[in-house]
Amino acid sequence: MNPQGTTSGGVSSEIPPPETSTSKQPVVCVFCGSSSGTSPAHVAAARSLAHTLHKNDISLVYGGGTVGLMGELARTLVSLSGPQAAHGIIPEALIQYEQEGTSNTDAKNTIDEKVYGRTTVVPDMHTRKQLMAKLVIEGGLGSGFVALSGGYGTLEELMEVITWNQLGIHDKGVVMFNVEGYYDGLIQWVKTAVTAGFIAPGNAGILVEALDADEVVRELKEYTVAEGRYRLDWSQK
Question: What is the pTM of this model?
């Protein structure tokens, strides 16, 4: 990488400055699997969400993967809205897995901007999640976080932004796109945790369920901050 932290092909290693436009575009961060799942409904949901983001002029931030649901979501949106509509954030260590398991670690040769949108390479997972959240927090009305189907990583990312919402770090919507009942167990867990006294009733609504792509966007636009959130001051003094 050159001293400015950029390479050809639209790949950057530095955190970009925030937009200064007075009319900010909504930014939605989507957490999802790098696998496609065994049911075609999961891929169909990713495509449907891409079409809905395009229809509503919403910018996508995602994990930078080119395979599985991540790749399908980004490819579909870029094909509709252009490369500027998608921004992948990927740790350097994961680049080698982005072309069907090849050992190529050069992002500019691995991730095609014309197909997957802009890519920012970061040093580690913590920086990745921090930047993804920062872009959403700085986005316009209707910005937020969405979980499509996924595995451990998807659940971990989802739980972190839920916790950040509860702690007052952000006030953006958190929506799970529940495809074929994939997240039914998580919904039941939240109810059980409330009953057992580990989640306050006023915080049960931090995570919202959506059953189709249009409902995902509607829930983000109409998201109401949970009454039980902590009123903490996270500003640096």
Answer: 0.87
